[in-house]
Amino acid sequence: MSQQIEINIPELLRKGVILWIFFASLTVIGLITSVFKVPADSQGVILRFGKFEKTVGPGLRFKLPFGIDEHEIIVTEGVRTAQFGILGSIADSSQSFNPLSLGERNPSTRERSLQRSIMTGDLNLLEVEWIVQYQISNPRDWLFEVKDPQGTLSDLTEAIVRTVVGDRTFDEVITIGRLDIAQETRDRLQDAVKKYKLGIRISEVQFKNINPPSPVQASFNEVNQAEQEKGRMINEAKGSYDQQTIRASGTAQQKISEAIGYATKRVNEALGDISKFNAMFIEYQKAPEVTTSRLYWERMKEVIPKMGKRIIIDEETSQILPLLQLNQVENGGVK
């Protein structure tokens, strides 16, 4: 038969054991509920009876125990991403949300199509997909100033994008204006979230895809290809024009240089002839007969070799032809 154990509660109370156990448990619970850790990329928000008390930085932090103070950990260093008009999700986003999927709603394809359908300033429809990257800069405003900060951010972003795109033409949005639209959207959105005290800082706005509606996509592609072909042919024509212009300019410059060289040569030759004539005239003045004779024989020396074979006889000589046998020529001489 097992031995019965009797507990004498008054004896325990008299010795204070239960009281010590109570205070020890209370101390442990107080320590557990008063200490919390804030990660390095976050800030802690302490609430006292549900009311904002203060914000604390990373590290081991303390608060009033037993539920008097509560805390919320808000990531402030990580970049969050809001998707708009994108049917899938962004794989490289650590924290992202689709504005249409907030709350208990299950967005339909029609709702997503309506969000991405935006009209331009020249009354053309576009299907636009974009994302907004932001960081929480003020945890207090993020938690308490607006009831639904993500929903508010969604409404503000969509309204601003529709306004910015609506101020531009179809061609501008689809081609060269994408970066300007993204920058203007970011600036306007930053001003709006500051005005509404959302407690966030807009890092970047990126437009992923901007396309015409699906029913006219094929026609648009054909027009786009035609425009590209037109641009290519214009560039080729300009290149050929520039090439021919450069070649013609080089040829013209060469002709001009040759003409200048020829003119310089002729002038120098003329100057040389003048100097030669002046020197000869000086010699002629000193000895006219000698100079005249010398000039005559120098000229004859130049002229006679060019005349070919010639026989010079006295005009009174007769019957010389039978003796010379002029028709027999051998090795360039007369036999």
Q: What would you say this structure looks like, in words?
A:
- The structure is a single chain.
- Helices cover 51% and strands 20% of the residues.
- With 335 residues, the chain is of the alpha+beta class.
- Among the domains are: 9-75, no CATH class; 80-211, Band 7 domain (Tetrahydropterin Synthase, Chain A).
- β2 (42-48) and β3 form a beta hairpin.
- The longest helix has 70 residues, at 217-286.
- The N and C termini lie far apart (175 Å).
- Mean pLDDT is 81; it is low at 90-94 and 97-107.
How is the topology of this model organized?
Layout: H1 9-15, H2 17-34, E1 35-38, E2 42-48, E3 51-56, E4 59-62, E5 69-75, E6 80-84, E7 95-97, H3 109-116, E8 117-119, E9 125-136, H4 139-144, H5 149-166, H6 170-174, H7 178-195, E10 200-211, H8 217-286, H9 288-303, H10 321-324, E11 329-330, E12 333-334
Parallel strand pairs: 6-7
Antiparallel strand pairs: 1-4, 2-3, 2-5, 6-9, 8-9, 9-10, 11-12
Give a summary of the structure in a few sentences.
This protein has 335 residues and is α+β, with helices and mostly antiparallel strands. It contains ten helices and twelve strands. Helix 5 crosses helix 7 and helix 8 crosses helix 9.
